[in-house]
Amino acid sequence: MRSFSRLLGILAISVGSGLPRPQPLHAQNTPITITGRVTNDAGAPLPLASVYIETLGLGAQTADDGRYQLVVPAARVHGQQVALGVRAIGFRNMSSLI
């Protein structure tokens, strides 16, 4: 079974909410959008990988270019750290705190 070599090299994660400047998560009234791209060790995109935040019951699947988007509803944003996980056939599951 292959593995993701470096989680930070595999997951390019950007968090944005459309606000002009960053604010603490608990101070926001708008949904949080988490986007990124899942790739293999060689940098090739991994389509159909599962990207999820288990504690919030949210998940998405990567597109052909490895990109994904998760939208966290404003009512579920409480300033907590959560684990963003990735599953792909033939690779070990990985997660990273965001």
Describe, in plain words, how this protein is organized in 3D.
This protein is mostly beta strands. It has a single domain, classed as Immunoglobulins (Immunoglobulin-like, Sandwich), CATH 2.60.40. It has one helix at residues 7-10, and strands at residues 11-16, 32-38, 50-53, 58-61, 67-72, 83-87, 94-97. The strands form two sheets. A four-stranded antiparallel sheet has the order 4-3-6-7, with no helix packed on it. The chain has a three-stranded antiparallel sheet with strand order 1-2-5. The longest helix has 4 residues, at 7-10. The protein is elongated, with a radius of gyration of 14 Å. It starts with 6 loop residues before the first helix and ends with a strand.
Secondary structure elements and their pairing?
Layout: H1 7-10, E1 11-16, E2 32-38, E3 50-53, E4 58-61, E5 67-72, E6 83-87, E7 94-97
Antiparallel strand pairs: 1-2, 2-5, 3-4, 3-6, 6-7
Main β sheet profile? 4 strands, antiparallel
CATH topology: Immunoglobulin-like
How many separate helices? 1
Q: Give the uncertain stretches in residue-range form.
A: 1-23
Number of strands: 7
Tell me the distance between the termini: 26 Å
Arrangement of strands in the largest sheet: 4-3-6-7
Tally of domains? 1
| Computed structural class | mainly beta
Note the run of SSEs as H and E: HEEEEEEE
Shape descriptor reads: elongated
CATH superfamily: Immunoglobulins
- Helix content range of the residues, please? under 10%
